[in-house]
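Help!! Second protein's tokens look totally different from the first
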Amino acid sequence: MFDLIFDHYTIRVKDLDRSAEFYQNVLGFSEIENRTQKAHIRWFSMGEGRELHIAKGNSDIIKTNVGVHIALRLKDFDGFLSHLNRYNINRHNSKGIQDSITTRADGIRQVYFQDPDGYWIEVNEAATLED
């Protein structure tokens, strides 16, 4: 029918610089050109042409739970857990229980955590070296 391809995800944040620092330092996203040229928006590459846009605004009305999240995957899961510890980021499992991770039925480990505005992020251990 249609050949839709994921392009970008936009979130509203209270403090643009604080959120930008989080996405750069904690997740390693590179800031890219903001083609809107609007000062209240910053763009980040998520790899393979996918982007995250963060826009300064009132995020008080945004309510999320662990069931609504962006999911990423990587090979060095244990190294990433140590990385989260260095930034004092609370780890959760898929039910939102703190100081815990999830191991799926297929053996893949997952960790959930929140950005400075409370948006949930899931990071999965890659299943194979090709992932």
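Here's the second one for comparison:
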Amino acid sequence: MQPDHKRMSRMLGYTLTIGTPEAWQGFRRVAQVRMTEAERAMLAFFMLNTLSRDLAEGIARFALNAAGDPLPPFLGGMEDARSWAGWATRDELKAYALASFEAMTPQDQAAFFQHISTCEVAA
């Protein structure tokens, strides 16, 4: 067994024994140093697949700091939309942008296209 793998095995045992969020945070830090990204990805994939779909999706969203579904507007559409967009993941932004565009009337789509055509895009 490779020394780093042996250390990680012991670290997992200590973490399970202690069982606190702080212990798991320590495990995360040690794993980041002692395991390759591919090893951590495989561990994450197979561990998520041991959970129910709802729980696995919730944990993945939480880990990625996903914003979830936008809330109904409270103080006005744009302010709430911009606030939500600040929390959303790249995939959420793309999905809601496309769905919103597709739901617009043809006139609104044309106006939106005109608006984004005149905006300067940051590279």
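Reply: Different proteins will give different token patterns, so don't panic. The two ends are 47 Å apart (CA to CA).
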